[in-house]
Amino acid sequence: MTVTAERAAVRTHCPYCALQCGMTVRGTEIAPRSFPANGGGLCQKGWTAGSLLTSPARLTTPMIRTGGELRPASWDEALAFIVARVTGIRAEHGADAVAVFGGGGLTNEKAYLLGKFARVALRTSQVDYNGRFCMSSAAAAGTRAFGVDRGLPFPLTDLAGADAVLLAGSNPAETMPPFVQHLRRARDAAGLIVVDPRRTPTAELASVHLAPAPGTDLALALGILHALVADGLVKKSYVDTRTTGFDAMWRIAARWWPERVERVTGVAAADQRRVAAKLASARNAYVLTARGTEQHASGTDTVGAWINLALALGLPGGEGSGFGCLTGQGNGQGGREHGQKADQLPGYRGIDDPAAREHVAGVWGVDPADLPGPGRSAYELLDALGTGGGPRALFVFGSNVVVSAPRAAHVADRLAALDLLVVADVVASETALCADVVLPVTQWAEEEGTMTSLEGRVLLRRRAIEPPPGVRTDLEVLSGLAERLGQPAGRFPADAETVFTELRAASKGGVADYSGITYDRLRKEEPLYWPVPSPDHPGTPRLFLDRFGHPDGRARFVPVDHIGPAEPPDAEFPLQAITGRVLQHYQSGAQTRLVPELTEVVPEAYVEVHPDTAARAGLAEGDQATVTSRRGAVTAVVRCVPSMRVDVVFLPFHFPGEGRANLITNPALDPTSRMPEFKVCAVSLSGSGGA
Ligand code: SF4
Fold it and tell me: Residue 640 is part of a domain; what is its CATH number?
């Protein structure tokens, strides 16, 4: 790494989560800066992000697997090797034999160029990304109800005016601590309501903590909604003028009165009524959801149930009120807008829409008929690798599926069955270590690019330092590969601003319209929330104030019913496992496990259990435990937590090897979003000798 000569403090944003806290980088020194999302705060991950820039684990040389070992190679050799293998595989098995897997942490430019690379340079339909694992149910539910999916359709600073906020399946006090400052008024007004099976740090802050059994929060939302209707608290004028579908929705919710919901969820009927009354009496209220509601086989409907509640309260599109979803990955919002999803083209357009295909093909300079159709969703794609009819080669950018995908051992087996695995990464992640070719790429502060935060605000991440010699940007990699695959020079630009200019054209007229956003405007830090349909447009901080995105301008109540977890507990697997994040680590941990200050605090996999549950398994604090499901077993250190439900264990998913929480998770998919059920599966607990 070479630090720029002047060592100026460069204004940029954190490399990790979707809050995209403002920070400055001077050399490798990090400092927070005043920015609305973080108000001058950073969490431990942000403060220590400078360690990523000097990590000795950094990859700086391409590698090719030869005789079972990865050996250094030149860029020319590595790219030529890839192109020769891809060309052979396509000739033998067809274009869909080559697949591409992206990530929700990639910049908008990378997400855009990756989708274009798949569909134009490779002509494959087999492209999807890890955002399918963490935001797709919210996206599907938001689109269904509102006609537009933007995580927070309002600036998150609006939350500071709320006297009631219901957080369902969200733990921001641990995952994005600076966010909590926006909840101060709700906390002061005793209006912070947290729905979570665990007593998380966020639940500790709450006035009301509802702890439903895992996988039952859809029923809980129905119970609160039922109480609202039964007690005459529905905002009828709003329902009549701004929504459709109430009656069909109510035909199901009418059967879920609070006492019945109490039997399913364990949440007292009186508490359900208390929450309904609190939300209805608030002057300004919000309902917010996150992964806890989404990562279920019925995740889309679960988010939909909370949206129904918010609509009955008259919140979405109101002044100082609303419904939103807290996105997790750094570019979780932008990552789903620019065409790296199996079913989407840039501008948040559907790939089956003839007008969308025509428009995007025009920007790309190709025949719309040559654009592939929809491909497999993320888990289905991984599950098909190396099978008859499945992809034989895979490119992975910005993802570590060996740790982060459900049923992780099976996914590793599928990777091993490939003829070619190419991984572009900053460090030797667990997935990179399985690759045939590893390509070392630049990271956040070494490159320029845009991100779209959880509130739909587009931000510029500036280059603060020069990258180490030998690494290339992902854009340079895609550009170089495309040219070697026969694409005309210039069709795949490697410069971020040039790619963004093309992205703007591709997004024009789409739901997520970036056409009026320029790097110059972003350099001035104009608060540009999409859509921004022209260069003189100020952006759209608040959506839905006058109308929702459906043709009739109304939001949709959607009838949803409680189903419960795909894998209920039984005699063999009597407990339920929840997976999630901890303060010190981010996603698969590939970055944060390299930061000494963070690993000092949380160095290894652990399992949180109630002391009685541990004792029944013959375990005590600090013991090595084995958590076993139908798909595998995780080894983790026991942490006894008296606030845990006795029927639940919790595992963070940031750790590799035998501590991988995703060795046990269930890939049961939501039928609409194709999101796996990470949040609950049936398990047993035993000493490390096994069940
Ligand atoms: Fe902010 Fe998230 Fe970075 Fe923490 S990880 S500093 S909350 S952007």
Answer: 2.40.40.20
